[in-house]
Amino acid sequence: MSNAEKIARTSPDLIADQVERLRAIFPDAFCEGRVDWDRLRATLGELVDERPERYSFTWAGKQDAIRTLQIPSRAALVPCPEESVNWESTQHVFIEGENLEVLKLLYKAYFGRVKMIYIDPPYNTGNDFVYPDNYA
């Protein structure tokens, strides 16, 4: 692995990235390094739609998931060549871990380079059936 490229030790700070993108588009909407919401509204010509959304995808714990997403991860992906097939020449990678943490780690290093990510392979394949899945 002498050709391994170095990657950051933490996942990106998504909020900071988005704030910087907003600052690049609307620099006048910032005051003392923070978003000034009144200035942003004025910049947008008060065209901010404040009506409730008609449709949304929501679930219990969604806000907690969003907060977890926004916290940079300090985890690391550790390769296991001894458990792999054709480690030096393969173009496919199997990663085992908690979905959100792994996706956060892959985001910057592999953005635009991944063709497919298969998350949550079939469940209930063992003896402990957690979900009712016999709908005959």
Topology overview:
Blueprint: H1 14-25, E1 30-31, E2 34-35, H2 37-43, H3 62-70, H4 99-110
Antiparallel strand pairs: 1-2
Summarize the structure in words:
The protein is mainly α. The protein is 29% helix and 3% strand. It has a domain of 87 residues. It contains 4 helices and 2 strands, in the order H-E-E-H-H-H. A hairpin with a 2-residue loop joins strand 1 and strand 2. 2% of the residues are buried. The mean pLDDT is 79.
The helix content is 25-40%
Q: What is the end-to-end distance?
A: 51 Å
Q: Largest sheet, order of strands side by side?
A: 1-2
Strand content: under 5%
Q: What pattern of helices and strands is seen along the backbone?
A: HEEHHH
Mean pLDDT: 79
Number of DSSP-assigned strands = 2
Shape: flat
Low-pLDDT stretches are none
Give Rg in angstroms. Answer: 21 Å
Biggest sheet features: 2 strands, antiparallel
Tally of alpha and pi helices: 4
Q: Structural class per helix/strand content?
A: mainly alpha
